[in-house]
Amino acid sequence: SNGSSINWPPEFHPGVPWKGLQNIDP
Amino acid sequence: QEPLTASRLAAAPLHEQKQMIGERLYPLIHDVHTQLAGKITGMLLEIDNSELLLMLESPESLHAKIEEAVAVLQAHQAME
Fold first, then answer.
1. Closest residue, chain A, to B44 (C-alpha)
2. Is A12–B46 a contact, with Cβ atoms under 8 angstroms apart?
3. Residues in chain B within 8 Å Cβ distance of A19
4. In the predicted model, what is the mean pLDDT of chain B?
5. What is the pLDDT of residues B3-52, one digit of tens each?
6. CA nearest B29: which of B62, B75, B71?
7. Cross-chain residue pair A25–B46, CB shorter than 8 Å
8. Which of A2, A4, A16, A18 is the best substitution to test chain B (most B C-beta atoms within 10 A)?
9. Can you say how many angstroms the Cα of residue B27 is from the centroid of all Cα atoms in its chain?
């Protein structure tokens, strides 16, 4: 592992802004 | 709770669309995989919104995708 994929996937939790959105709409 | 339709979704800003879908998906996934629900929902949200809407309407395709996501997640974790 190069360490870049450790945080994948960006977890979703109800009521919390999804971090995966940073890749879609920065 | 009203169904999430393509038109309701399209009316929302792009950054809110995934959030809206996630809020619907999460409880369905949580019923099947309580511990992994957050990760699986995050993975499925990477799919196109149009396909996600179809999955919300079709429990069979949703469950198929959930199992697919779990397999990918386990393979990913095995590599870490």
1. A9
2. no
3. 42
4. 94
5. 899 999 999 998 799 999 999 999 999 999 999 999 999 999 999 999 99
6. B62
7. no
8. A18
9. 10
Chain A hits for B34, Cβ within 8 Å: none
At A26 the pLDDT is 47
Q: Does A22 touch chain B (CB under 8 A)?
A: no
Question: Using one digit for the tens of pLDDT, what is the confidence trace for A1-26?
Answer: 455 556 789 999 999 999 887 655 54
Give pLDDT, residue B15: 79
Residue of A nearest to B17 (CA): A21
Q: Is the pLDDT of residue B66 over 90?
A: yes
Angle between helices B49-57 and B14-32 (to 10 degrees): 40
